Structure to design on (404 residues):
């Protein structure tokens, strides 16, 4: 790939919108081409600069103001229809979705990301943290250990939707396999030891720690998945094999 | 519970430039979302909602005559192939400079930057929201970034001059 070919792709590369083959070509070109590498660096800095621009959250009163203006929202029928159809988008649903379904949702989110070829919203430079990118995009703070030296390389992060709320998804690579780790605040304080599940050829481990729900999903087998250093400790696997 | 209210408000605030118009537009958009809700059959509630917010904002800009739609060719005229402003120390570009820079961009440029950089949306989602092909999203983002860089470079030159 030469500059003429690489240059128009730099933006899409940084945005994580290139397929793996093109991304690799851009990477190998920028390693050799100082001009394109410098351009890439400038674009990265620009992204950082824009991320530091103000994010205008809704004022506390706006929510109430809209609800008052739309009394129909409070009537049961449209409200229920709304909840049913927009389930993944609604925080409210969290209370009504049984825990068992979260596993399904995590699998769906994992598959959605793989099928759409949209694994990450932000790439992790050198396999290190993507935490700054999440700041202001989540309604909770994300604290995740850097585990790249321990066999799971952080590819990046993205926002996803699980259990009716926006959640952080971290994407790790392990021996060519993709591991999605979904993290969001738990409603209960107490920790819970990791539990394994398998479904449709995919494997999941979930636990509760540091006030967060953690769900790791991958086509890695359960034992390898439990080696994820984020996972608090190795526990006997309770497999629920279905379908 | 109103989903995505912060994202909706942030987009409206950047497009309209003042808090009052932004809140009005967000309210209008949510009321429309309810009205048109039967028309939503997709998976991506956030993109669907932000599309309504964005359309409401552009209508508002038209109404207030603060915005004359730029012919498509004009948007395409903004070059994205000028040499990189190597002298620019973006580290020094403070929040205020970036905010001003963003505010001077045409709204079509501003919205793709807000959706991409602040909401982390994919090209596909942005294409859905702004109702243009994905290729246009890609070139518009590249042009928007180039223009913002030029603005910031000019601003930092003025400061050092």
């Amino acid at each position: 790939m030469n500059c003429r070919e690489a240059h128009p792709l730099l933006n899409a590369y940084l945005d994580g919108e290139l397929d793996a083959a093109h991304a690799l070509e851009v990477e190998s070109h920028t390693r050799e081409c100082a001009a394109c590498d410098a351009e890439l660096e400038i674009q990265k800095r620009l992204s950082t600069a824009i991320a530091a621009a103000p994010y205008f959250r809704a004022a506390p009163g706006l929510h109430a103001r809209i609800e008052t203006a739309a009394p129909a929202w409070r009537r049961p029928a449209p409200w229920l229809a709304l909840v049913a159809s927009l389930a993944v988008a609604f925080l409210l649903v969290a209370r009504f979705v049984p825990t068992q379904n979260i596993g399904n949702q995590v699998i769906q989110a994992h598959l959605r990301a793989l099928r759409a070829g949209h694994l990450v919203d932000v790439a992790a430079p050198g396999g290190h943290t993507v935490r700054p990118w999440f700041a202001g995009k989540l309604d909770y703070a994300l604290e995740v250990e850097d585990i790249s030296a321990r066999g799971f390389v952080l590819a990046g992060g993205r926002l996803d939707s699980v259990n009716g709320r926006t959640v952080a998804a971290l994407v790790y690579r392990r021996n060519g396999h993709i591991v999605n780790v979904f993290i969001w605040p738990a409603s209960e304080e107490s920790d819970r030891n990791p539990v394994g599940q398998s479904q449709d050829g995919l494997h999941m481990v979930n636990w509760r720690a540091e006030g967060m729900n953690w769900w790791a999903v991958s086509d890695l087998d359960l034992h390898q998945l439990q080696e994820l250093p984020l996972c608090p400790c190795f526990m006997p696997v309770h497999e629920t094999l279905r379908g | 519970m109103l989903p995505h209210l912060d994202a909706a408000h942030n987009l409206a605030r950047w497009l309209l430039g003042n808090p009052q118009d932004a809140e009005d537009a967000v309210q209008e958009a949510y009321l429309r979302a309810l009205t048109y809700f039967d028309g939503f059959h997709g998976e991506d509630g956030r993109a669907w909602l932000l599309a309504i917010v964005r359309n409401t904002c552009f209508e508002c800009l038209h109404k207030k005559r603060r915005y004359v739609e730029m012919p498509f060719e004009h948007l395409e005229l903004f070059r994205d192939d000028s040499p990189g402003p190597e002298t620019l120390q973006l580290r020094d570009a403070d929040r205020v400079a970036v905010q001003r820079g963003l505010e001077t961009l045409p709204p079509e440029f501003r919205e793709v930057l807000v959706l991409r950089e602040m909401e982390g949306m994919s090209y596909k989602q942005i294409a859905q929201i702004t109702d243009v092909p994905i290729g246009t999203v890609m070139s518009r983002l590249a042009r928007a970034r180039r223009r913002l860089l030029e603005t910031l470079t000019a601003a930092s030159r003025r400061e050092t001059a």
In short: Confidence is low (pLDDT under 50) at residues 76-87 of chain B.
